[in-house]
Amino acid sequence: MRLKTLLLTSLSAGFLLAACAGADGASGVEVTTREMKFTPSKLQTTEGERTFTVRNRGDIAHTFSLNELGREVTVQPGKTKTLTLNLTPGTYTYVCRILDHEGLGMRGTLRVRAT
Ligand SMILES: [Cu+2]
Question: What is the torsional sign of CA 54, 60, 61, 65?
Fold first, then answer.
């Protein structure tokens, strides 16, 4: 009986740790740009202040632009930039605004969940 309680407690602790790791991961969001796509093209996070780390692994400059929020960063090839946003729940689109990169595939969806 006691062993069972201990086992259940350990399991709960394990789940709690996993949940915390997920929450920590959600405080920062990483996205990579290259010709002509974002990786990943679907991002998910929770509401609040989130820092996006945008890496450009392509050969030309790209932007990470959230038109609905009027915010963007331009990242030169081989460089990394960060963008901190205070997010409210909803679904947002991110695109690259250089030439017709969006039309060529540089478009993604960010889902922000309520906590
Ligand atoms: Cu681009």
Answer: negative
Tens digits of per-residue pLDDT, 62-101? 999 999 999 999 999 999 999 999 999 999 999 999 999 9
In a domain, 54, yes or no: yes
Q: How far is the CA of 94 from the centre of ligand 1 (A)?
A: 11
Q: What is the pTM assigned to this prediction?
A: 0.77
Report the C-alpha gap between 11 and 48 in whole angstroms. Answer: 29
**Cα 104 to middle of ligand 1, angstroms:** 9
Domain extent, residue 68, equals 28-113
Among 38, 56, 55, which residue's Cα sits nearest to residue 92? 38
CATH number of the domain where residue 91 is located: 2.60.40.420
Note whether residue 21 is domain-resident. Answer: no
